[in-house]
Amino acid sequence: MTGVETRSVARDSLFLLADIRVEQNAEAHRVRVRNLSDGGMMGEGQLRVQRGHRVTVELRNVGAVSGTVAWVQDNRFGVAFDEEIDSQKARRPLQGVEDPAAAIVKPSWAHRAPPPPQPNTLRKI
Fold this sequence. Notes:
mainly beta, 6 strands, about 0% helix, elongated
């Protein structure tokens, strides 16, 4: 791995705890959130998950966020959220009861590949 940052979406390196539930399992597991962005997170803990598992993460000041496990390596794993969130809210001190839907922001295509070009719009050289 090189020291060059290749990601197009900024991530917040932080250390906070979150509860996570795996695929309809009633048992919540406490994990450490190492990186958090609007579109996903990296978690760490003694939790056995596999790529493709559906999870629900309870984040401070954000609420319950659904997503899919994108990768697993040792005791770390990545989660891609179904809906983008305001990741800065998780950094703020605990707040009172708030509408969790307010934490969800409009989807952004900043971290997704652009669609392929239309053949009729290409220029011939």
